[in-house]
Amino acid sequence: MKDRLPGGISIMKQLLTGNEAAAEAAIQAGCRYYYGYPITPQNELINYMSTRMPEVGGAFIQAESEIAAISMVHGSAAAGGRAMTSSSSPGISLKQEGISYLAGSELPCVIVNIQRGGPGLGDISASQADYFQAVKGGGHGDYHTIVLAPCSVQEMADLVYDAFDLADKYRNPVIILGDAQVGQLMEPVEFHKKPKKNLPAKSWALTGAEGRKKNVIKSFYPVKGQLEEFNAHLQRKYRTIEEHEVRYEAINIHKADVILVAYGTSARICKEVVKKSQQYKFKVGMVRPVTLWPFPKEIIRKVSERVECILTVEMSAGQMVEDVKLAVEGRCPVHFYGRTGGGVPTSLEIIRKIVEIVPDNRAANTLLQLAAVK
Amino acid sequence: MHTIYEKPKSFIDTPTHFCPGCGHGIVLRMIAEIIDAWGIRGKTIGLAPVGCAVLAYNYLDIDMCEAAHGRPPAVATGIKRVHPDHVVFAYQGDGDLAAIGTAEIIHAANRGENITFIFVNNAVYGMTSGQMAPTTLLRQKTVTTPSGRDPINSGHPIRVCELLAVLDGSSYLERVSLSSPENIRKTKKAIEKGFKTQMEKKGFSLIEILSPCPIYWRMDANEAMKYIDEEMTRTFPLGVVKDWEHKN
Q: What is the phi/psi pair of residue B162, to 5°?
């Protein structure tokens, strides 16, 4: 069977929203336990799972609350299953109790956050204001979740698929940090069959202690000294993840005068600016973190040694910019442009900001022309 | 020589953290006895909550999972979906099950989850030094109701079995007590019935056990047993509240 149409378009491609692509990718990654609660803008995900999960013999429950949904994930993960839940910002806040327990019990699972505007009930449009919550822990205690940030429907599918492997490899929760744009956008997507990774067996899982010593899944260490020892173990694991799992996309970083740092939907807009700038003398490059934790500090540190300045663009009041500054450690100025409350930065706004921050008027001359074209 | 009494194999030989006169040890031992007698250690998974029962996994020699405060019904649901033919039970106290975990227990019952819940009701928060529980009796003194529980400020004791009985998803609900050898035997029968309900896939079962907490009731062990019989059972009458085998 031919798998390409004239023009090279794969017939395997489907037109899906990011939310649906996340659900289908989870199924293809072997997730058979999904527990969710309705909230806009992630509803396409729970809706998709309600029909798709029974088709593959998996479990789907519309839970009574976000807290119950993450607790069900806790149970299925403890029992050795690949489990997932999804929500949007206010719902993710409710799940923080469970996420802390999952991290403290070293249980693998995938949590999708299709971010909306906050604080509080906020609104239902795209936002990146949950960055701190996702990358700094979110719940109580010293822990990290691995945080992946897709910027397209295809990347949503690819990262959700990888998320299950990463979770199992490190016995750690993985968060997919999307937003209303990436979740509700429809784009062609193809589900690639990937080779099975050689992952450690789940000898720790609860299966009934037939013919073996009992297994206990817990995060409670009341005996003096035990908890400190356990935390040291967690921190060693986190250092290993930081060493091996950093992912980013770098565009035109070698010739750039200014580097944009952005992820997810903001990164799509920044890419546009980078593309436009290539026709002019003044060059804009970009680093797009794909893993928000572990954060790609090394590449940002490297570019900071060469460029005039860095501009971080976010749909927040300035969260990731703090990690960029930590990576740069004062080697070059780090600026910020952000929109909040459902506001999405435009390429024109970003160009204006670049003109404002560049120390001479080289940028102004070329980039303002560009803006005028717009 | 004929052995007439021994420690169940599924009960670990270790000192417990329970206070003198506490009922938890009796209940955990009976669970271990049933697991041994029925030979189900290899297919049983237990849930330990937050509260006095938090360390249940140190005493039972079976696979066990911790759950956040009040969440055992949801965590157990996740486990049961992975192992539908295993015996999954949650061991919960009154604060865990009837205060912070009210939503979880009601919806587990409403879904008719094929799981057994062992609900130890001692009318007080023991682990945290004796505060009011949702099941604290009216006028009962606790550290947070120093003049006795006043319904105007603190509400009324919650009757969990009766509350869950109105849900179509619940199958077996019984209230028992630990106040005498006879009542302890009845309690063991009730736990057996709960496990049987689950193993025959008849749905949600919950056994509410009135259990003494002499330390935070500020009385001796004998007075505590008397308190169960004479005071607690007036608010929490013993008996079967719902039974799938004998539908009214």
A: -65, -35
Question: Across the interface, do B71 and A35 touch by the CB < 8 Å criterion?
Answer: no
- Over residues B55-84, the pLDDT tens digits come to 999 999 999 999 999 999 999 999 999 999
Using CA atoms, how far apart are residues A179 and A98, in angstroms rounded to an integer?
Answer: 21
Residues A57, A186, single domain; the answer is yes
In the block, which residue shows the tokens 């409710």?
A94
A1 pLDDT tier (thresholds 50, 70, 90): very low
**Yes or no, beta carbons of A64 and B63 under 8 Å apart:** no
Q: Which of A244, A264, A285 is the last residue of a domain?
A: A244
Q: Note whether B78 contacts A218, CB cutoff 8 Å.
A: no
| pLDDT range class, residue A12, cuts 50, 70, 90 | confident
Residues A185-226 have pLDDT tens digits of 999 999 987 777 889 999 999 999 999 999 999 999 999 999
Please identify, in words, the CATH class of the domain defined by B24-243.
alpha beta
Interface mutation vs chain B, best among A62, A65, A67, most B CBs within 10 Å: A67
Asked whether residue A93 falls in the same domain as residue A25, the answer is yes
Range of the domain at A161: 4-244
For residue A158 the two structure tokens come to: 């690819």
How far apart are the CA of B103 and the nearest CA of chain A, in angstroms?
7
How far does B37 lie from chain A, in Å, by closest CA? 15
A162 and A91 share one domain: yes
**Side chain identity at residue A367, one-letter code:** L
- Are B83 and A68 an interchain contact pair (Cβ–Cβ within 8 Å)? no
Cβ atoms of A19 and A184 within 8 Å: the answer is yes
Phi, psi of B219 (to 5 degrees): -150, 170
Residue B243, CB-side half-sphere exposure with 13 Å CA sphere: 11
Indicate the residue among A244, A279, A310 that finishes a domain: A244
CB contacts, 8 Å: A75 with chain B: 65, 67, 74-82
CATH of the domain at A141: 3.40.50.970
Quote the pTM value. Answer: 0.96
Contact between A209 and B86 using a beta-carbon 8 Å cutoff? no
